[in-house]
Amino acid sequence: MRRWIVLALLAAGAAFLAMRWPLVNDVETGKSPGYPDLTVREYRASEDQAAKAVKAAVERLPRWQFVGAGSGPAGHAVQAVYKTSVLGLEYDVSVRVKRDGASTRVSVRSKSRKGPVDFGQNARVIRELLSELERTSLK
């Protein structure tokens, strides 16, 4: 009987947490209504400078792994993987850097590799990268 009570409480807790966050596993700056604070960032730096700053920020952060980068007519792209420390869950992160008039736009997308709901982790991943980028590189 006690076991069923514990299981019921765990299920209720999980349901509460699932309803607290948007039911997504893919978050992108400027495109995820559940996270209005996650906006595309604009900088005065050149496209090349911003792309280098993104790569450097990824390489400085713990639990982040730089995967690759490229550039073309659509701008620069930086790919990375974020891995949680407790469960070892992985999140694919794509950063797009594109010149737009007098500024360079940086947008970030984070997608969970597993599960239909991320419990806000993708948004935390994006915030961590943007904070590091703004703290040390592109003010």
Query: What fraction, in percent, of the residue positions are helical?
Result: 25-40%
Termini separation comes to: 58 Å
Uncertain ranges: none
Structural class: alpha+beta
CATH class: Alpha Beta
Known CATH architecture: 2-Layer Sandwich
The biggest sheet amounts to: 6 strands, antiparallel
Task: Report a brief summary of the structure.
The protein has 139 residues and is α+β, with helices and mostly antiparallel strands.
Q: Could you describe the 3D structure shown?
A:
- The chain has a single domain, classed as 2-Layer Sandwich (TATA-Binding Protein).
- The chain has 3 helices and 6 strands, in the order H-E-E-H-E-E-E-E-H.
- It has helices at 2-20, 47-60, 121-136; strands at 26-28, 41-43, 64-72, 75-83, 90-100, 103-112.
- Strands 1, 2, 3, 4, 5 and 6 form a 6-stranded antiparallel sheet that branches.
Q: How is the secondary structure organized here?
A:
Blueprint: H1 2-20, E1 26-28, E2 41-43, H2 47-60, E3 64-72, E4 75-83, E5 90-100, E6 103-112, H3 121-136
Helix pairs in contact: 2-3
What descriptors fit this protein?
about 140 residues; alpha+beta; TATA-Binding Protein; 6-stranded antiparallel β-sheet; 3 helices; 6 strands; about 30% strand
